[in-house]
Amino acid sequence: MKYQSFIGLEVHIHLLTRTKVFCSCRSAFGDEPNTNVCPVCLGYPGVLPALNIEAMRMGCMVAKSLHCRIPEKTWFERKQYFYPDMTKNYQISQFASPLGQEGWVELEGKGIRKKIRIKECHLEEDAGKMIHTGTASLLDYNRAGVSLLEIVTEPDMETGEEAELFIQQLRRTVRYLGVCDGNMEEGSLRADANVSINLSGKGLGRKVEIKNLNSSRFVKLGLNYEIQRQGELLDQGKTVVQETRLWNENRDETAPMRTKENAQDYRYFPEPDLPVFSPDAAFLKSVDDALVELPLGRVKRLMADYGLTEEQADLICEEKAQADYYEAAVRDAAAQGLEHRDAAGRVANWLLTDIKHILYRDGISPAELGAFKLTPQRLASLLALIAKGAVSGKNGKQTMEAVLAEDKDPEAIVRERGWEQISNPAQIAEVVHAVSGSEAASLAEARDAAAQGNAKRVSTLTAYLVGKVLAATGGRADPKVVGEQIRALLQKG
Length: 493
Ligand code: ADP
Ligand code: MG
Ligand code: ZN
Description:
This protein is α+β, with helices and mostly antiparallel strands and about 500 residues long. The chain has helices spanning about 55-65, 160-175, 215-235, 280-290, 295-305, 310-315, 320-335, 340-360, 375-390, 395-405, 410-415, 425-440, 440-450, 455-470, 480-490, and strands spanning about 5-15, 75-80, 90-95, 100-110, 110-125, 130, 135-140, 145-155, 190-200, 210-215, 245-250, 255-260, 270. The chain has an eight-stranded mixed sheet with strand order 4-5-8-1-9-10-11-12. The protein has a three-stranded antiparallel sheet with strand order 3-2-13, with no helix packed on it. The protein binds adenosine-5'-diphosphate, magnesium ion and zinc ion.
């Protein structure tokens, strides 16, 4: 390759704190404009911010999950610039000692395997929202002061695909941690993508920043477009202008927004109204206690412990609630006597086909599986009934629907509906005996045919007799056992 490319991401996530980061206003998306505001987040002079410890805790949870170091002292700075969505004329952010420093993540999947260094994670406040109407611009300050965590990577990625995977993986991680809903359309997770190219071995090039990407696909498309565009410029002996560009999703191209010839001077200085934060042992323990097994590790564990394929494990681990559901159902099914690997396979099949189909049909998100009427316990019972032959596969599907409709246990549904499969040979033998009495003529004919070696006639009459036995049990007798007993009867003749 003639050129080498360098990609670094700056990802902003809205933390799911109940209140804003420096005041007690409600932090919510979609409320009536300018209803969740107070003098602090509106930036009145003389007011005092106070740190929301939940925001600091959530930020540190993300930082630790990205293997960042939490410094002994972390503090806030004022980042100064003017924009109408920010009435104070400065944003409270972190600069010299952010809450998370020098971490890394393993990027893995889709044929990619690579370690990406994390430069830092810092906590800051979001700005308000400007709504352009054509004739005027409106301002909604509900978002001003909402807790925002910015995650900055080193320029270790090389392709749009790697950056897309990074975003997807990070999104899944913060959702597992329960610190961000990851909703990119609503702006809960948004990314700025920095990219430069240079002759191989010559180090970083002059970077272009693509701002405000609100989907992981646009991150990929925007970056690959830039890599191509910058390559063509260098081929022509031109230089890349260091600037900020925007992705135009209608034209599938980036366009200049503003040039960034020399770094903007924000004149950062320490925020005088907030004390330095020194995380103590109790705080650090509360962070550790809130951590969970991360998606990538869980995918690997599910493959190893449950014999799932990578694709199955990945699908199941897409949502934490779904992976929890899966593991609970396998545990319960094993408790009901199914062999572990057998249970693991059966639950995976049901979860990824029938249950997935029902969730989609009924508009239930996999994240809501924790409240699903077919609880892991109920699915386990149903699978145990099927495995034991107590209910047929077909009646099993009907049972699942009835469990959902009536909110009852599978055993109760099967009993009430009379759907128990009869596989007890003695019980079936009684019915076969009765049928051989009422169908004596057919039985005699079948025996003659058997004696003469007329296989075709035997098979027709056997099917007829099996049908009679099934009908006499209301379709509940196990057809396999019935067939065996009828065939045995013909031999005896
Ligand atoms: P700035 O001061 O312009 O914000 P930073 O050093 O803070 O720049 O880096 C911002 C992001 O840009 C980081 O993700 C970083 O990895 C990435 N980055 C920095 N320099 C380059 C470059 N030359 N090419 C590609 N990405 C870069
Ligand atoms: Mg920066
Ligand atoms: Zn407020």
